[in-house]
Amino acid sequence: MKNKKRKRSDSFSKKPARPVNCKRDFWRIKSSKIFYVAARIRELIRECEHLPRERQHEFKAIVFSQSIWRAKVALEKQDIRTADFIPRINLRDRIKNLEAFRSQPDVHVLLLSNQGSHGLDLSFVTHMFLLEEIWDKSLEQQVISRANPMGAKETLTVEL
Q1: pLDDT tens per residue across span 33-64
Q2: Global confidence as pTM
Q3: What is the pLDDT, as a whole number, of residue 61?
């Protein structure tokens, strides 16, 4: 009998994010706050569409959550394009998504989890939505300071 070594299962970190199927996933969501945030973002995007062309890119929002896939489903249901900076997406794709959020005028929302709460400069963001209360107040301050660093000239609106 051979002594077989068992491979360590690190597949969680290497698995690609599963695509969101709105028809299948949408009905599992039981959070009125997520629906409120999606509707509020849709409303803010519509307001920006009435601005002159050179100012339309000014609305950028971060949605921060521990269970980010629910927010992704609700936002997709509202036809809102998102950039994802979330676990289960490799670093190269996260950086590419961050650049798309920064530079593309039709990508208004960055989905952010704990992974993105450190080391990012998101000082161009105008709105931040925290989907659930963050019990660690230092983490909450860290998340907010990503978009509102000391000395920032723009106003950041944070909705809890």
Answers
A1: 888 888 899 999 888 887 776 665 678 999 98
A2: 0.73
A3: 92
Distance CA 9, CA 81 (A): 33
CATH of the domain at 111: 3.40.50.300
Confidence class for position 130, pLDDT limits 50, 70, 90: confident
What burial class does residue 28 get, using C-beta atoms within 10 Å of its C-beta: 0-12 exposed, 13-18 middle, 19+ buried? exposed
Q: Which domain holds residue 108?
A: 57-160
CB of 122 closer than 8 Å to CB of 97:
no
* Nearest-angstrom CA–CA distance, 104 and 64: 20
